[in-house]
Amino acid sequence: MWRLLALLVLLVLLVLLATRALGADWSHYDNARFGYGIDVPPGFAGRGEAENGDGQVFTTPVATLTVFGGYIMAADFEAEVKQRRDWAAAEGWALTYQVTTPDRASFSGRHGARILYARMIALCGGTAFGMFELEYSVADIQPFDPVVTRLVQSLRASGDCP
Q: 75: which residues sit within 8 A by CB, 6+ positions away?
């Protein structure tokens, strides 16, 4: 009986966390240089836009959200995605998930007790991209699942091409 009650309490807490993650207290970041935007989760503090204007880092005590854009330097968007996955693997991330289409891609992996989730979208007819990388603890997978979902859904083109 106590186990059932404990499970019920845990489920209620997870629902409350998910509700907070999907709630109205998210903010929004638009990048004028590359013309993309993304919702920013509650509790993430911006560290100021990069000097070159390509993006911004947002942090909490337990997670880092890096949002940036760039020009496609590889042959095309899909080759750019592959290059970024290769860089992540070279940095020690064991990639466990990857999906790529001609205009969007996601990949994730694990490095020790940390999780990386990355999402890229093609911008300006495939000449540029917008991207986020969210890094957080393996212990926080459940509360961050709805956060990742919203980040993926909100990363979009928002302005003129560079």
A: none
The one-letter code for the residue type at 111 is H
Residue 96: partners with Cβ closer than 8 Å, 6 or more residues away = 108, 109, 110
Tokens of 30: 């638009």
* Domains located in the chain, CATH noted: 2-157 (3.40.1000.10)
pLDDT in tens, the chain (162 residues): 444 333 322 332 333 344 444 456 999 999 999 999 999 999 999 999 999 999 999 999 999 999 999 999 999 999 999 999 999 999 999 999 999 999 999 999 999 999 999 999 999 999 999 999 999 999 999 999 999 999 999 999 997 887
Distance CA 80, CA 128 (A): 10
Q: Is 67:132 a contact under the CB 8 Å cutoff?
A: yes
pTM of the model: 0.84
